[in-house]
Amino acid sequence: MPKRVDHARRRDEIALVACRAIAQHGFARATVAQIARAAGYTTGMVAYYFDSKQEIILAALRLILKRMDQRLQRAPGAARAGLLDVLSEALPIDGHRRTECAFWTAFWGQLAADPQLKRLNAWVHREYRKLFERCLAEQWPESLAWPTAVRQQALRSLIAFMNGVTTSAVSSPRDWPARTQVRQLDLHLTLLRDWARSASRQSLME
User: Fold this and answer.
1) Model pTM greater than 0.90?
2) Residue range 51-89, pLDDT digits in tens
């Protein structure tokens, strides 16, 4: 009886290897042939699942978003309204997450010169925003009562902070160990919540 192949799992394996290859070697140097060798497949096998490097990149982006979503949902603070604990799961605080975040930064670095990647990034940004919007609503239920403008500004500030820490930790890992990342996130959340509460009260008085 022929062996049954899990094609979805194989696609994920190739996407994960692509993520690692790009994180290690950079976007341009990580070729389809190199990704195939690292995955233990022939170039023809990779071509069976993906028509181009762009498709592999899209699969890698989807896989990373999926893994991030899973971590955020099963985070230690997910059941007790701890936004710090939940969002810490999205920071590059261990080897696996550093690899994912190094892939993100390599991807971002190519956007200016590649219109196709810009379109991919627009989709990624929407999905990324949904993840953090859900976390904000679940872990800070009070945010649902904030004026829309305040809630949206808080969300943008949070995303900008997470992206900034991600980039800093990938480029200067010695200056941004896990403990420092979490401490800075804690400070940002404290200041952000205080600002949002004050802005909401001010809005009600106007």
Assistant:
1) no
2) 888 888 888 888 888 888 888 776 555 444 488 988 998
What are the residues whose beta carbons fall under 8 Å from the beta carbon of 33, sequence distance 6 or more? 43
**Rounded CA separation 57/107 (Å):** 9
Q: Using an 8 Å Cβ cutoff, are 75 and 85 in contact?
A: yes
Give which of 107, 195, 111, 105 is closest to 155, Cα–Cα.
195
Look up residue 15 and give its amino acid.
A
Tokens of 98: 């550093």
CA 104 to chain centre: 7
Higher pLDDT, 7 or 165: 165
Contacts of 42 (CB under 8 A, 6+ apart): 36
| Averaged pLDDT for residues 21-31 | 83
- How far apart are alpha carbons 181 and 89 in whole angstroms? 11
Which has the closest alpha carbon to 63: 20, 29, 106? 20
Q: What residue segments make up the domains of the chain, in order of their start? A: 7-205
Q: In the chain, which ranges are E strands?
A: none
Mean pLDDT is highest, among 21-30, 82-91, 156-165, for: 156-165
Assign a CATH topology to domain 7-205: Tetracycline Repressor; domain 2 (1.10.357)
